[in-house]
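Researcher: Sequence recovery benchmark, item below. Answer with residues only.
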């Protein structure tokens, strides 16, 4: 087996073993109701598996839809900023300013605008993921090889051809970097959004579990959210290998 897989796996097993033996409880002076044991969390997952699976799918759907919308908008902003450089810097600054607004401030506004359905959480995720895509895609479209640009001009290539065959192609590694960043941001945005006005999802269940002191169930939501986030990341990484296998990083 690959050492890159064995070492993290062994570290994870050791971490769970020490946790089950309450080593962290003694070090941090925590009670079991504050930090449930892995066995209690596993039991909560087993007893509520169908509910957790349903809510995980709901939260993941919010994250995927929101990330696709936010990333598409960010890419279009980068495209426009590259095509019209005079106002490009200003548009990216505005997107970065939107990203600086805390999710907890955006969530009530989006819930007021879009209701308590999936649309409000998708809007929160879109706002949280737009900036990373816009900035990364803009960097990829502008960081082209000057010699390649001169070659395109020597063939009398117009602006659309330069964008299609040079700038967009060059931006793809940056785009997938942004997508991988956004897989994490989208899950965070969806779960935080569910803490407010929601009747489904991992964030909703986590919030309710904490309120009624069902900590093993609350931690099971955290575990399922982490697993869903890892799966989402691996899916994007797989797409990256398919779409940019021509890139030097893939060949290496």
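Model:
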């Amino acid at each position: 087996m690959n050492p890159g897989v064995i070492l993290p796996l062994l570290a994870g097993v050791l971490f769970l073993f020490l946790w089950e033996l309450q080593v962290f409880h003694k070090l941090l002076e925590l009670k079991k109701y504050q930090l449930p044991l892995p066995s209690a969390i596993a039991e909560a997952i087993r007893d509520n598996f169908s509910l957790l699976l349903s809510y995980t799918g709901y939260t993941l759907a919010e994250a995927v839809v929101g990330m696709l919308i936010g990333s598409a908008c960010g890419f279009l902003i980068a495209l426009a900023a590259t095509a019209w450089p005079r106002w490009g810097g200003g548009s990216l600054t505005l997107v970065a300013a939107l990203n600086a607004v805390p999710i907890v401030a955006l969530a009530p506004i989006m819930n007021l605008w879009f209701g308590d359905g999936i649309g409000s959480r998708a809007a929160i995720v879109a706002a949280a993921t737009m900036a990373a895509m816009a900035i990364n895609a803009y960097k990829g479209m502008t960081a082209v090889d000057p010699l390649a640009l001169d070659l395109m001009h020597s063939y009398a290539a117009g602006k659309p051809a330069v964008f299609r065959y040079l700038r967009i192609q060059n931006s793809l590694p940056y785009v997938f970097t942004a997508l991988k960043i956004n897989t994490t941001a989208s899950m965070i945005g969806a779960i935080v959004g569910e803490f407010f006005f929601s009747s489904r999802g991992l964030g909703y269940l986590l919030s309710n579990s904490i309120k009624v002191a069902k900590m093993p169930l609350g931690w099971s939501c955290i575990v399922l959210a982490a697993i869903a986030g890892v799966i989402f990341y691996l899916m994007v990484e797989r797409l990256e290998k398919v779409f940019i296998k021509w890139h030097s990083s893939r060949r290496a």
